[in-house]
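User: I'm writing a tutorial on reading structure tokens. Could you give me a worked example: one chain, its sequence, then its tokens, then a sentence or two explaining what the tokens reveal?
Assistant: Sure. Here is the example chain.
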Amino acid sequence: MKMKNKLTLMMLALLMVAGTVMAQSNHDEEAIKKVIDVAYIEGLHNGGDLQATESGFHPGFNLLIFRNNMLEFLPIYNWIQMTKQRRKAQTEPDKEKTTCVYKNIDITGNAAVAKIELYRSDKLIFTDYLSLYKFEEGWRVVSKIYFRHP
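And here are its predicted structure tokens:
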């Protein structure tokens, strides 16, 4: 009887630990989606708050652009500056908004990768792979590679 009680207690402890890990994973996944939605999709694509973009992207962020069999780097501060200039040059805001579909979020400890698809007018325009780290202030995007769909 004692062995059965010990096994039952061990199983309960394992279930509690697994539940805690899954709850934390769900919390982290939601936090990652929020950073991507606010800082990236709304901030950079849909005319949103660029201060939120600065908060959601690490200052060391680089967009890696694959062109002519070479890699080019676009730091976040340059991307934000280009976005500001584009917005100033626009006579009216874009009517068509970019939407995001989350294909996968893979989290290990304080590191994560999100695979997302970006659509405009129901047309797939980009598949992005965003790398994130969890800092003391929360999840932040640290790099991006992408594929532009024809």
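What the tokens reveal: DSSP finds three helices and six strands in the chain. The first helix runs from residue 2 to 45.
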